[in-house]
Amino acid sequence: MAVKKDKQKQADPQNLGESEKSPSPKRAKNTGRKRTSKRAVFPIVGIGASAGGLEALQELFANMSSDTGMAFVLIPHLDPTHASLLPELLQRYTGMPIHESEDNMRVEPDKIYIIPKNKNMGILNCTLQLSEPDKPHGLRLPIDFFFRSLASEQGAGAIGIILSGTGTDGTIGLRDIKAESGIVIIQDPDTAKYNGMPRNAIVNNLADIILPAAQIPVKLNELAKHYDKKSRRLYLEPTDKLSESLQKILLILRKHTKHDFSQYKEATIQRRIERRMNISRTQSVTEYLRHIQEDPEEAHALFKDILINVTRFFRDPEAFYSLKTRMLKLISQRPTGEPLRVWVPGCSSGEEAYSVAIILRECLDELGRATSIQIFSTDVDDDAIEIARSGDYPLGISADVSPERLKRFFIRSEYTYTIRKELREILVFANQDITRDPPFSNVDAVCCRNLLIYMNAELQKRLLPILHYALNKEGILFLGPSETIGGFTTHFSTLDKKWKIYKRIETTLANNISFPPIVYPEKAGLQEDAVKVPRPLSANLPNLVQKALLDNYTPACIVIDYNYDILYVHGATGKYLQLPAGPMTANITELGREGLKSQLSSAIRRVIKGEPEVTYHSLWVKQNSGHLLVDLTVRQLSLPPEPKKMLLVLFQDVVTEVKTKNGKVRGTKETKTDERITELEEKLKHSRQSLQTTIEELETSNEELKSSNEELQSTNEELQSTNEELETSREELQSVNEELLTVNAEHQAKINELSVVNDDIKNLLDSTNVATILLDNSLCIRRYTVATIKILNIIESDVGRPLRHVTSNLNYDNLAKDAEQVLDTLVPKETEVQTEEGRWYDLRILPFRTCENAIGGLVVLFIDIDDVKKAAEEKAAREVAEAIVETVREPLLVLDPDLHVISANNSFYNTFKVSVEETRGEFLYDLGNRQWDITRLHQMLQEIIPRNTSFQDFEVEHDFQNIGRRKMLLNARRVLQAFGKRELILLAITDITIPGQTRKRSTGKK
Fold it and tell me: pLDDT at residue 36 above 50?
């Protein structure tokens, strides 16, 4: 069975992008050598993205935990001349530290690394390796470059993710990751902003998991948990149990795919099963067996994994250079014109088959041969065969195919390289299982690279004689660097030991070839011969009778189309047509016998131009033993169900009456005399002369056409050169466009952040109600807050105008002058200013410093201090009033509108011998022994504030507590607290008691 080409162990990741060149000792690499790199003990996730990738990355890391135990390496398409903002933009969405990669930087888990601008990046020994690209712009494939090195470095620990982007970058690298049993995750194209890269990976059957970007972290967490258990390998299970489970899995595969893998190496099957276990999160082979039994789709996925497609163009360039040398010798020894046949079993998606075709075409050009080539390319994977037949490959093949070969054998489109038609026509792709289907035979070379390495020794011993049988004498067998012919040294001799190129040896020993029996489909009714049953008449009997009548009574005729190509033949036409030498053709004019060609071509042209029917009578058609007289008729043919326009060409023999030596007469038509023969000979002579003239004119026309053709060829070459230049320019523009899309996305994200910050700052400044003006270095207004409008006569159109052009409402004319002074000296200035309305502000002028500590202008602040100013004045006034009150010798009380004591002076406390605690805050009528609870006094005090009245010398005589009977005069009036905020009552008391004189009753009664 043919399987996909397995990996060639890549040497140095830094050489991943090299094209095929002539081998040299310095470049020689043994691709079969063992790895010496030290793989990380944690999974490394490579993430490729292009246009639209920023949004996908933000969704991915917004849902990603910070302790997955994985390392993430981001490979977006960046502008090589523009510093990327990606680390800053992504840091908001993840708690993992983000680093811009540096050369030899070690990769650690739970960290994110981003490729720097204008660099290619690979990974070796768990450290990132940076290199300069060949061109800053143009076709660059950094994702393929990193994925290839990641696959070589990490093997099964590699995870490749493709997010939004255009083009095909990443496809080639994903193949290598799958070949090493790594995992491939693709963003769902329906959720990607640009679906080119995800869709191309899916079309090439590389996707293991397809999810929206926001759901990928869930799958990564599952894989990380499963990776922690990878110390449990398949072979740690009991041998008998493992073998039994594997056999059952292979049986299920054979049931669903019709292919038997039982004779393939067990280690290969185990690796592929283990990879599927990682993806399906099954913990044992037994559990996976249940899973594959329940899910037929899993059987198909395992089948595709075993047939993993990892082939490349000119894999191992030195091997193909050696093959080319052998083929040159083989072709040079062949007879000229003998076709060259090659068989490529296990061709996968066709890269190696096309590589062989290119080599053979170059060999023929170097030898100047026109030998035809037939290459039979076979595989069991129908999907891979379809890719090979299409001949469309990602742009990443430019890393393996030289520019000269790309130009000659490929057609460049927007996202792919397509094999040219002249190369594609020499290859035939077909489905074939080499282990059970009959082989091709009589081929000159067999290219069977990295197919036998999958098979056990028994199957290899069965296949090598088949390959020997398929080859011609001294045919070439081309194997992979890890394959050998084993013990079949009597069948093959070695041409190149290093690159495993062998020549067939003719041997008389038994080949021990065993072909599977050919199974024919059962035919119904074979067992019915024992019982003879009369069969009914066929329903097609009228058509059969009609056909018999046509065959016996209708002249020979041919149906052709307007391109002169034969569509249908009726009757014996061999007398009128003959096969020409050279390639087979269906053109009727090239098949006509001598004497019929020119009239046949003329009649067809006339009918095509519109004549319903054209007939030429009595044409002398040359036969092998003489001539035949024929009537030729061409007419239009219309068949209603068939839309295609067709013509009917009729041939009818003319039977003449000729006297024989015996006097007998043959024929039914009146015979011409000898004069008629002479006349015909003259006409023939004239026709030949006319024909000669026509030929000469035709040769002249051909010369003119050749000259015109040369001019057209010259013009075509110029146009082709111009087209190549335009193609190169388009490639560069496409690359620049992708880079600009990435930069634009970064800028847009930054703009959105700045917009949010700007709104926050604006709302913050406006909410502080602090008038603020930002000035640039020319003292022009850059920004201002709403509160500034109350102080300066400023409007929106004043932004950008000098500060001195704006009038103010301040009783202060030095604002612009102070601003110039601060800008010159960088010394802040602060002063108090007052508006024309009398409101006070604290004016502060400060230098504006940028993040780089550069002076970017000034900040002018107007802080409202009017309340503070008035509070200070009120405090001063209150202190003066209190000093006055304390100085007065008469007792004084200050009452609130509810007649509660707010304060009293020392004279009151001394006169009535009371304390502050007994007085302040108490109701006036509750003081002492309620000596002030006088009805008349009530009425007068209650009218003071509402009516703004006062009273004087209200006499009160009473036995006061602590001081005895006294006579007092009361004076009261309304007073306003400072700034008129509160109305109070000032009550003054004068003691007018004359010693020895008392009254029994006060003048005011209670």
Answer: no
Domain ranges, residue 973: 878-991
Report the CATH number at residue 486.
3.40.50.150
> Is residue 422 situated within a structural domain?
yes
Band (pLDDT 50/70/90 cuts) for residue 519 is: very low
Neighbouring CB atoms inside 10 A of 500's CB total 21
Same domain? For 413 and 548 the reply is no
Please check the confidence at residue 555 and state whether its pLDDT lies above 70: yes
Nearest to 789 by CA among 799, 779, 780: 799
DSSP state letters, 279-291: HHT--SHHHHHHH
Q: What is the per-residue pLDDT for 756?
A: 79
Beta-strand pair 340-345/427-431: unpaired
Closest CA to 361 of 422, 300, 404, 410: 422
Looking up tokens 């490349």 gives 312
Whether residues 260 and 336 share a domain: the answer is: no
| Residues 323-345: tens digit of each pLDDT | 999 999 998 888 877 889 999 99
Provide the β-strand partners of residue 504.
Answer: 492
Q: Are residues 330 and 357 in the same domain?
A: yes
> Between residues 760 and 492, which one has the greater pLDDT?
492
pLDDT mean over 49-73: 89
CA distance 650 to 631: 8
| Angstrom distance (rounded) from CA 377 to CA 447 | 9
pLDDT (tens digit per residue) in 406-422 = 999 999 887 789 999 98
CATH number of the domain bearing residue 559: 3.30.450.20
Residues 788 and 901 in one domain: no
Residue 542 has a pLDDT of 53
The mean pLDDT of the chain is: 78
Structure tokens at 393: 């490959």
With cut-offs at 50, 70 and 90, classify the pLDDT of residue 186: very high
**Cα–Cα distance measured from residue 327 to residue 444, given in angstroms and rounded to the nearest whole number:** 9
In a domain, 736, yes or no: no
Residue 136 burial by CB count (10 A; 0-12/13-18/19+): exposed, middle or buried?
Answer: middle
Which range, 8-12, 26-30, 771-775, is most confident?
771-775
Residue 385 inside a domain? The answer is: yes
Same domain for 97 and 219?
Answer: yes
Would 687 be classed as within a structural domain? Answer: no
Same domain, 280 and 215: no
SS3 state of residue 218? helix
Q: Alpha helix locations (H) across 782-852?
A: 815-825
Position with higher pLDDT, 670 vs 513: 513
**Where among 310, 327, 357 does a domain terminate?**
310
Q: Same domain for 293 and 350?
A: no
Our measurement of the distance from residue 107's CA atom to the centroid of its chain's CA atoms, rounded to an integer in Å, reads 25
Q: Whose CA is closest to 957, among 1003, 914, 988? A: 1003
Give all strands of the β-sheet with 416-419 in edge-to-edge order. Answer: 392-394, 416-419, 410-412
What is the identity of the amino acid at 405? R
Same domain, yes or no, for 184 and 47? Answer: yes
pLDDT at 520: 37
Number of compact structural domains in the chain? 6
Say how far apart CA 342 and CA 499 lie, in whole Å.
Answer: 18
- Listed residues 504, 533, 556: the one ending a domain: 504
Dump the DSSP string for 459-485: HHHHHHHHHHHHEEEEEEEEE-TT---
3-state secondary structure 869-881: HHHHHHHHHHHHH
d(CA 636, CA 617): 18
Q: What is the pLDDT of residue 682?
A: 60
Tell me how crowded residue 893 is: count the other CB atoms within 10 A of its CB: 24
562, 609 Cβ separation under 8 angstroms: no
Give me 251's structure tokens: 């049986």
Please list, in sequence order, all residues whose beta carbon lies within 8 angstroms of the beta carbon of residue 202, skipping any fewer than 6 positions away: 186, 189, 210
